Amino acid sequence: MAAVEASNKQVVLRDYVEGFPRESDLLVTTGTVRLSVPEGSNAVLVKNLYLSCDPYMRNRMSKLVGSYIESFKPGSPIAGYGVCKVIDSGHPNFKKGDLVWGITGWEEYSLITAPETFFKIKHTDVPLSYYTGLLGMPGMTAYAGFFKVCSPKKGETVFVSAASGAVGQLVGQFAKSTGCYVVGSAGSKEKVELLKNKFKFDDAFNYKEEPDLDAALKRYFPDGIDIYFENVGGKMLDAVLLNMKMHGRIAVCGMVSQYNLKQPEGIHNLFQIVVKRIRMEGFLVFEYYPQYPEYLEMVLPLIREGKIVYVEDIAEGLTSGPAALVGLFSGKNVGKQVVAVARE
Amino acid sequence: MAAVEASNKQVVLRDYVEGFPRESDLLVTTGTVRLSVPEGSNAVLVKNLYLSCDPYMRNRMSKLVGSYIESFKPGSPIAGYGVCKVIDSGHPNFKKGDLVWGITGWEEYSLITAPETFFKIKHTDVPLSYYTGLLGMPGMTAYAGFFKVCSPKKGETVFVSAASGAVGQLVGQFAKSTGCYVVGSAGSKEKVELLKNKFKFDDAFNYKEEPDLDAALKRYFPDGIDIYFENVGGKMLDAVLLNMKMHGRIAVCGMVSQYNLKQPEGIHNLFQIVVKRIRMEGFLVFEYYPQYPEYLEMVLPLIREGKIVYVEDIAEGLTSGPAALVGLFSGKNVGKQVVAVARE
């Protein structure tokens, strides 16, 4: 019996990127795909439903040497987290019809050769797209970074940068639920409104309207910051260091302001680490995935009770993918940027 | 009965210092002192025997605002750790003849108004001057920073900067006794020899002869660094960040290369904190003083058995104090810099 073939739209990286990525760095092409797994293989063939646009993906567009991730391959489709439906499976743990999330290709169909790295989706009474965000990698990132790295205590002050993004909006809400005072920064009036009115941050500001970030932080944290959830790096980090409290903690999740620079900005206020006895710790979500069930147990009831909200910015169709991904680096998205490839 | 008076030589700060301190920033003068404590006071009058020259003292020469320490007062004697003999006491815990160590004035006699902060010296079978170093603040600093902040494990790789100094030489020896591989950097051939031959570091290099610190570190740590004991900051820290291993730890003790700069150098490689999941933590020895008895219990037997060695650079007489202190910042001292004011 001849295998069924289908056309397969793909988003391909033209060449390694330097500086700010442009839409033209990505190419939408159409190939074909066999809709079954090769005989005898352990692979799984999936239909991609939702694709996640995440800041770390910028790093994979560069020619990387010895990083924690690999470069995308010029001429091949890029990859990222996605929500997928199993079409065919050669793996005992997965069967046709299963919904899963994990790292998949930016294309309509993908052959997954290491399906062990995928999570099965068991709860479908919440939007499926949430598994690219609140219930996926960014959710686990917020959970691990805030609770596990920062050990927050009730009454502490928390600052979150890139606060309306996929991770930041959750850190803020987790901080509120812990009884912390939380302020977020974002890059537009609209996002600041979102932080204050939708995510219930205690306060928020537009960093683009603050010529003096140190002064801004002193305004919002007259007694200093206990916990900084670091998403941006650069000048914001330097200003935060001047405003940390004694024994403050900085969870370093990312430094998106630096990803498009050839030479990262210099940080000048690191001696504050001694003065204030600060702990600054980098973390990667992969190491916390064994705690995903524990996270789901905490967060699913909160979602169902409406105690946690999540804002997504959904781009329709794979063809809109390049613009959606690139837009992340100029802050075009409001909330978690998702690309809807197909609605099942 | 009239109180006995004595002449009292003092080292006085002329004015706040900017940039590299010079001998002429300090003035040796002679006043008088009453050799008894005021009636009804809790104070203690001490004769200063040994004074400690420590890098952090540079910060107190500047006009500081909101730091963890206070500026020295222009026109008054500077202060620092010292070993002293009690001449008169109004405090129930101290009596004439007691040997103590703590923060005292740079002068022949000092009236200590908060003697509670002093430690009594109970073991005098070791050189008294050691209580400014190995058995004093620098010793506790090495102990707390290495064992408590870095949680070292046998077989790990350790890098120490300013390794022949008061703290560094101990960190290296503690690392060896833990079964670690340890390399130190210092600023002269003589110091490098000391590290290798006297303190038994596995290896050592002269950072002034290394145009490319990253390359030097890759030579000594082809598989990377687990623990960095940070004493210097600046370019060395930036190079170390590129060479840390996964889950590496950086104990930030000081950043002496930065203390004389108006604007600290920028650190560009901080994103490595995420890539390698590094924990970077500042600490101050004060918070660990409750563990001083535990430290003595560990270190005294090692000294007596000759399993730990300590090199001091002793300047004779208070008049030599300004040159000794200022010399610290050009690396003139070989080993722990002490000023011997009187030998009991």
TrEMBL record, chains A, B:
Keywords: NADP, Oxidoreductase. This is 2-alkenal reductase [NAD(P)(+)]. Transmembrane segments: none annotated. Belongs to the NADP-dependent oxidoreductase L4BD family. GO terms for molecular function: 2-alkenal reductase [NAD(P)H] activity. The lineage of its organism: Eukaryota, Viridiplantae, Streptophyta, Embryophyta, Tracheophyta. It comes from the Eukaryota. It holds the Pfam family ADH_N_2. SMART domains: PKS_ER. It comes from Punica granatum.
